[in-house]
Amino acid sequence: MRHYLSFIITILLCACSNSDNDSQQSALTFAKAKHTFNYFSSEDDISEAPEGMSKIEIQPDRWYQLNSAQDNIAALFDGIIDQSIERTWGKVLQDFDAYYPLLEDEEMVIKRIKFYDWQGTFDEPMELLVINRDWERIPIATFTGERYDTWVGPDPENPEVFTLAEPIEDIRYLIIRGASNYPSEIELYGEHTPGEPLLTKNVSRKVKLRNTFGVNAFEWDVVDGGRGRFINEKKVAALRNFSAIRHYMDWERLETNKGVYAFNPTESGGWDYDLIYQRMQEEGIEILACLKTIPPWLMATYPEDMRDAENAPLAYGADPLDPASYTDQAKMAFQYAARYGSNKEVDDTLLKDVSTGILYPGAKNSPVRTKETGLNLVKY
After folding, report:
1. CA neighbor of 47 nearest in space, from 167, 153, 146
2. Which DSSP category does 91 fall into?
């Protein structure tokens, strides 16, 4: 099951995000938590960490982000206060989370938080949260970037106060909630018991240079153009120089008409994907599936002057931050993965919309579309 689920998870991860309402709710939750739990000390503690606290060492490479591109979160903990954090552009999700998982036996108690406000302006604040042992998300600090070239504390209303009124305990994850900008440095103080790192065996692998090269390819790079069910041996001979091909395929090929899926051959173009993939497997050439463009029936939901095959894979007017907006593409990806992945136990009722039967009744050597699962021809 993991093979066909991986296709769908990949698509949904690119789509998943909290909405603007969630962002507003997060801010409200923070405000409520601050009021209810009185997180912040009222004393002036602009000095270094008081007695009984130590600086908590953060391993920068442990952070991971749920987005299509990564901001340089690791630089928030590199000790450099006079350099802005590098942010990437063109991210699918502007509102996202970065996670820092604690190790199984690691213990952390946060008592004090410092942000270095170097320079830059902010449209949205950055939030620092924790997830505790009960899987509760608790906001513990907000950074707004309102000051310049100075350390500030976790409460924008009391920026010179760094110590929390109550320690934050039972932490299993730290979360940085994405913003329009970041401080140049973050320091956490309190109590910390590092866990034992997971040790993995160093496996030495000898990989031949020829097995590290791949090439982009379309259906017509394997079969005859106009004759999608016939392998072109000269083209296959050229592909033997590579160990993998990234198969660029248009969504329209697999789902020419909404809700109807065809593979051997496809409705659009008449390409026999089964034949192509089976031959590539025989040649020892890995297939990396790369789905692209949107089909005409989805493009038709856009105004005429906005119709483009490279539009985002959702209907016009749909919320791009709502995972449900990508349901059509997820359904198609499931059908593809169910067929070409390795799981043969896919519920047959989920494949009811796969086109089957003789393509040209009465014609000699007419192709016959079939319903298949677990062909084990595509892994990535």
Report:
1. 153
2. -
Computed from CA positions of residues 263, 264, 270, 275, in that sequence, does the dihedral angle turn out positive or negative?
positive
Backbone angles phi, psi at 53, to 5 degrees: -120, 155
Could you give the CA distance from residue 369 to residue 285 in angstroms, rounded to a whole number?
Answer: 25
Q: Note the pLDDT of residue 312.
A: 93
Going through 221-285 in order, the beta strands assigned E by DSSP cover: 223-224, 227-231, 244-250
> Are 89 and 183 spatial neighbours (Cβ–Cβ below 8 Å)?
no
Q: What is the pLDDT of residues 23-72, one digit of tens each?
A: 333 333 333 333 333 444 444 444 466 777 899 999 988 999 888 878 88
By DSSP bridging, strand 286-292 and strand 126-132 are unpaired
C-alpha span between 300 and 315 (Å, rounded): 9
pTM equals 0.58
How many whole angstroms separate alpha carbon 357 and alpha carbon 362?
12
- Residue 171 parent element (H or E): strand 171-177
Cβ atoms within 10 A of the Cβ of 303, count?
7
Question: What tokens were used for 324?
Answer: 């449900």
The secondary element (H helix, E strand) that includes residue 100 is strand 97-101
Q: What is the dihedral of CA 205, 210, 216, 220, to 10 degrees?
A: -130
Sheet bearing 214-217, strands edge to edge:
214-217, 244-250, 286-292
Length of the chain: 380
Question: Is residue 281 within 8 Å of residue 377, measured between CB atoms?
Answer: yes
How big is the CA angle at 367 (ends 363 and 370), to the nearest 5 degrees?
135
For the four alpha carbons of 77, 78, 80 and 85, in that order, the dihedral sign comes to: negative
Q: What residues pair up with 40 in beta bridges, in sequence order?
A: 164
Three-state secondary-structure class, residue 339 = helix
